[in-house]
Write a structure and sequence with these properties.
By secondary structure, the chain is an all-alpha fold. About 75% of the residues lie in helices and about 0% in strands. It has one domain (about 15-130). The mean pLDDT is about 80.
């Protein structure tokens, strides 16, 4: 990181100042890489939630085709056919609603943690400006 192998303690002010653009570029690159990783994690979580919803829809459709006929036929042995059909349809709706809810909840938790990115960037800006990191005062909660 030092130019021409000069010891860190003996570098001139001009050399230190000349390193600022390179260091700032490295900092920006590192922040962008961290943001890319966070967005990739978010996309994976959202994909899993969407996959759960797709599976829920597929199961509901398959259930409507295969189980409706069998359940109605079985229940129609002890109930009128119309009552058997209503009972089976209600059960399928409950199952579909539960699986859909699981998918929606998974999608809600898939958002990126932008607050951590904001705090990291704000900390970098404070460091560039030469400000000390703020410590909580008495009576103020720790982060």
């Amino acid at each position: 990181m030092t130019d021409a192998g000069a010891p860190i303690g003996r570098r001139s002010f001009g050399e230190l100042v000349s390193d600022i653009p390179r260091l700032l570029a490295e900092l920006v690159r590192a922040e962008l890489d961290a943001l890319k990783q966070e967005l990739a994690r978010t996309a994976r979580r959202a994909g899993l939630g969407a996959g759960l919803l797709a599976v829920a829809l597929g199961l509901v459709l398959l259930a409507l085709v295969a189980l409706v006929v069998a359940a109605i036929a079985g229940l129609s042995l002890v109930l009128p056919v119309w009552a058997a059909a209503l009972i089976v349809a209600g059960g399928l709706l409950v199952l579909g609603a539960l699986l859909g809810l699981a998918g929606v909840l998974r999608l809600r938790t898939a958002g990126p943690d932008l607050q951590a990115r904001r705090e990291s960037i704000a900390e970098d800006i404070r460091a560039i400006k030469g400000e000390a990191l703020r410590t909580p005062t008495e009576g103020e909660p720790d982060e």
